[in-house]
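Q: A small favour: would you put together sequence and structure tokens for a protein?
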Amino acid sequence: MEAVAIALVLSMVATVDDPRAPNARHRLVDILAIALLATLAGVDDYPGIVEYGRDRFDFLKRFMALPHGIPSLSTFRRVFAKLDPEGLAEVLRRWAAELVKSCQGKQIAIDGKALRRSFEHAWKKLGLHVVTAWCVEDDLVLAQQAVDEKSNEITAVPQLLDMLEIKGAVVSVDALNTQKAIAGQIVKAGGDYVMALKDNHPTLLQRVQRNMTDLILDGADHVTDDSTEAGHGRIDRRRVYVTDSLDWLTPQQRQDWPGLQSVAMVHATRKMLKGDQQVVEDDRRYYLSSLPADAANHGRVIRNHWGIENGQHWCLDMAFQEDQNRVRADHGQENLAALRRIALNLLKQDQSVKLGLKNKRLKASRNLSYLLAIVTGTSNAK
């Protein structure tokens, strides 16, 4: 199994182009393989990667060339800074595709995350911002795309969608990415969408708000789903209203949004105690969708979209300390972000132990057999 696991890692990273001169002392494939194994084993920075390589040198030497031993700290920094991020992003996509198999019939949530400590100077706090696609059902990161420093997510999401096979999938996005071109791209690729509608489309939002209110008051031409949950000192009620009677939209509005079939409203009410007083919070949110009018299905997709916060963003910050990572030079942070997401996927696939991600990483640092089994997807260590 040891040879199989290391061979898998080496084969996955072997396609990454080396930006260095042909006479470089250390092989790129060795550098990337050591970094990935170290990331799985709880390492979050370059000095830790170097120490991990030195600690595991005798083992690594059995499968890697390592002609000049373990690369130095400056070598890891320099290589990751120069490396084209597309290389490791492609490794993330290919490995995720192996784990997920197919996204048909599944939901893909797209959302951005800022790496808060990755800015270059204190007076210019514009750190790396990465948009990721997350498969809800498999709880896995499918792909990532960095946002250009002089742009925003709206330009990165189309690039991200181009990386994915979304035929038969439902793509959910937040209000920032509720764009006509993005809707058209999803439909053209054979997918469906559920898009949050807010003030960045004021005219359309006002029309949707007014007409959804009228439909609900009239009690006709819509379907509903009503659910209530209690816990943690609060009571949450969610009523989902969906209609496919869209005659109140102008012909131009219908034409602007390819595939538009339905409009949804989620009316969320939360009751909770603050001191001796009962407080009621009331919120209404609106959505455009290419799905048929099914309130229960819309409610599930809308709610599942924000699972990306706990399923990915929170995990990366808590288990991988991503927000605290201070790598700032060139492409270093983006490349390390790809490694973290590859490691996150592999760790989440492991069901052999009932541990959180942080403790799985600690176990992988101590137990070499467990680490290698995670890589191959055959972990059964207890």
User: Anything to note?
Assistant: Confidence is low (pLDDT under 50) at residues 121-125. The first helix runs from residue 2 to 13. The CA atoms of residues 347 and 362 lie 11 Å apart. The domain at 93-312 is CATH 3.90.350 (Transposase Inhibitor Protein From Tn5; Chain A, domain 1).
